[in-house]
UniProtKB/TrEMBL annotation:
<dbReference type="InterPro" id="IPR028565">
    <property type="entry name" value="MHD"/>
</dbReference>
<protein>
    <recommendedName>
        <fullName>MHD domain-containing protein</fullName>
    </recommendedName>
</protein>
<feature type="domain" description="MHD">
    <location>
        <begin position="371"/>
        <end position="611"/>
    </location>
</feature>
<dbReference type="InterPro" id="IPR036168">
    <property type="entry name" value="AP2_Mu_C_sf"/>
</dbReference>
<feature type="region of interest" description="Disordered">
    <location>
        <begin position="211"/>
        <end position="234"/>
    </location>
</feature>
<dbReference type="Pfam" id="PF10291">
    <property type="entry name" value="muHD"/>
</dbReference>
<dbReference type="InterPro" id="IPR018808">
    <property type="entry name" value="Muniscin_C"/>
</dbReference>
<feature type="compositionally biased region" description="Basic and acidic residues">
    <location>
        <begin position="216"/>
        <end position="228"/>
    </location>
</feature>
Length: 611
């Protein structure tokens, strides 16, 4: 036990920092530092006022032997305390005392020189933190976290090699590099091999020792047999084939089929009556309750949404819900103004180009062997919120992913190349993974990283909301008539998409637990989550908008209007293709040079809601 605590004490003021061992209470360390401060102040008072009757030493000869100002020296040690005596080793650096606290026992268990060595190392830490001997409390406070962690390591014992590595990384690399960089520092400086390099030899050596030291009974030595012909025919050729003999017959086999099928679990189906509605004839609550009914385009359901044949142009006027004043729609909202049901020449050409691209198998266009080189692709996530027919907010986030060669194939060789990003006029900002990629300017980037099994995200970007393209526009309409609540979801695809959306899921959150439902088309009801789910195999790029309808009875006490009982829906979809949704594309830095392979890009829905 050499040093129990370290402390930084200004000549004027309270202690800046105190660091203790785990088993040494901080309260005792504070007692030692407080006694050191009182002794120092008493010596200073004795120097300036020799006639002070309260000074610590009343013997004139003892005071003369101490000197003018004994604790103003650059270093020294002092024993403080009455019942618990501690030895305080100190060094003075520009008005800051660096204190090392240990016990004052005069036995061989205390190594005072080791405590002095720890105090000297602490002086090196604060001098490095303050960039010189001009050590002040203000400079120490700026680097308080680094000094705290460094003194914690020094207090537990550190070699000069590791201390030099810590001091070198204090200003540049941060706390994490300073704390963890010294694991193999001594081995690297001394030229020793690391453990992973020699672990294989150690394992082989231990396996050889275990093989020779194992206590095995010696086997009887047999006469050496004549060497066998390696090209001789196998004896299994002469073995008679017996297919039935491999199966063992159960002697207790029963002819009763109920015994044979006893171990099978069969889910019993509910009776047919469970799916039927129950008629209630109580006055005021007449009607059918319970069950679920799937119906087609019925007249009663169609009359509720009569006139909503057009998704965005006709039908419901947005002013009925938003307010008396219509909000003008600005142009340039990522193609929203082009989401119409009519046909135009540009849309027809775009649809024809998309159908031509869709005719080519995607595997033939994008198949690459990973062993040929690194691959890059873009993954985008788009979120949008629709209120009636108006777009409330929209956002798109994109990620560039790099898939390097497998470590088994690449070995220790790093993946390094440059690439270019085009069509970035709609991009709001880029964020780089600085440890793997750097910007060269003018849309050029340079990547350098070690091989990895998993794809690595290296670049992230977001689009301007007014320039974000929408793959799908959704509209939710809600009507209540008495005790009946009717909801309809309309949707239409962006005609500028390269490939139509497929496997789209629409989920409607119901405001109450339904007793009776009428839906069109068929949907799946999750009564626990109060969700109604539709699955649409494919949404065409042009044509009339799709409609999803539901009607259910609602108790009159559950709300007096649409403001209190509201349903909202959200959409889930995911697509892959040769281009990204935003139009951002990858290019090689040098024309004609293949530094990487561009594979299929994808985009998916984030928070895509309508209410």
């Amino acid at each position: 036990m050499s040093c129990l605590a370290l402390s930084l004490q200004p000549a004027n003021g309270s202690d800046i920092l105190i660091q203790t061992r785990e088993w040494f209470p901080p309260a005792r360390a504070l007692v030692a530092t407080s006694a050191f401060r009182k002794t120092r102040l008493a010596f200073a008072a004795t120097k300036h006022n020799p006639n002070n009757p309260n000074h610590l030493y009343s013997d004139d000869s003892a005071a003369e032997s101490i000197g003018d100002d004994p604790l103003a020296a650059s270093s020294g040690q002092l024993i403080v305390g009455v019942e618990s005596r501690y030895r305080v080793v100190y060094r003075l650096v520009n008005g800051i005392y660096v204190l090392g606290i240990t016990t004052a026992d005069q036995d061989n268990s205390i190594n005072v020189f080791e405590c002095i060595h720890i105090v000297n190392q602490s002086v090196s830490v604060i001098v490095t933190a303050c960039r010189g001997v001009d050590v002040t409390p203000e400079k120490l406070n700026r680097k308080y976290a680094e000094i705290y962690m460094a003194l914690d390591i020094v207090l537990r014992g550190v070699s000069n090699i590791r201390l030099a590595a810590m001091l070198a990384s204090m200003h540049g690399d941060g706390i994490a590099k300073m704390v963890h960089s010294a694991l193999d520092t001594e081995n690297k400086i001394r030229g020793a091999e690391t453990w992973p390099a020699v672990e294989v030899h150690a394992v082989e050596h231990q396996a050889s020792i275990d093989a020779f030291s194992s206590d095995q009974k010696p086997e009887k030595q047999e006469e050496p047999e004549a060497p066998k012909d390696p090209f001789a025919a196998s004896e299994s050729i002469n073995k008679q084939e017996d297919l039935v003999g491999e199966f063992k017959k159960d002697k207790n086999q029963s002819s009763d089929l109920s015994v044979a099928l006893a171990g099978l679990e069969v889910t019993t189906l509910p009776p047919a009556e469970a799916t039927q509605a129950t008629h209630i004839s109580v006055e005021g609550f007449e009607g059918d309750y319970g069950g679920i009914e799937f119906s087609g385009e019925q007249a009663s359901l169609g009359e509720t949404f009569e006139g909503f044949s057009d998704a965005w142009g006709g039908g419901l006027d947005a002013s009925e819900f938003v307010g008396p004043k219509k909000i003008p729609k600005q142009q340039g909202l990522g193609g929203l103004e082009l989401l119409q049901t009519g046909d135009s020449g540009d849309k027809a050409a775009a649809a024809k180009a998309a159908s031509g691209a869709a005719g080519t198998p995607l595997e033939n266009q994008l198949f690459r062997n990973r062993n040929e080189g690194p691959e890059m692709y873009i993954v985008e996530e788009i979120s949008a919120e629709f209120r009636e027919s108006l777009l409330a907010r929209v956002g798109l986030m994109g990620l560039f992913y790099l898939r390097t060669l497998p470590p088994k194939t690449a070995g220790d060789k790093e993946t390094e190349f440059s690439f270019r990003v085009d069509n970035t006029s709609a991009v709001k900002r880029f964020v780089m993974q600085s440890s793997k990629v750097s910007s060269l300017g003018n849309g050029m980037f340079h990547v350098r990283t070690a091989p990895s099994e998993e794809p690595l995200p290296i670049l992230k970007y977001s689009l301007l909301p007014r320039l974000t393209p929408l793959p799908l526009r959704v509209r939710l309409i809600q009507r209540r008539s008495g005790t009946l609540l009717s909801v309809m979801i309309q949707y239409a695809s962006n005609p500028d998409l390269q490939v139509p959306l497929s496997d789209v899921t629409f989920i409607l959150k119901l405001p109450v637990d339904p007793t009776l439902l009428k839906v069109s088309p068929k949907a799946v009801l999750n009564r626990a989550e109060r969700e109604l789910k539709w699955h649409v195999p494919e949404i065409p790029l042009k044509g009339s908008p799709g409609k999803l309808r539901v009607r259910m009875p609602v108790d009159s006490s559950e709300g007096e209007g649409d403001q209190e009982i509201e349903a909202f829906g959200y959409v889930k979809f995911s697509m892959q293709g040769t281009t990204s949704l935003s139009g951002v594309c990858l290019r090689t830095a040098t024309e004609g040079k293949t530094d990487f392979y561009e594979v299929s890009h994808s985009y998916q829905s984030g928070v895509y809601t309508c209410n």
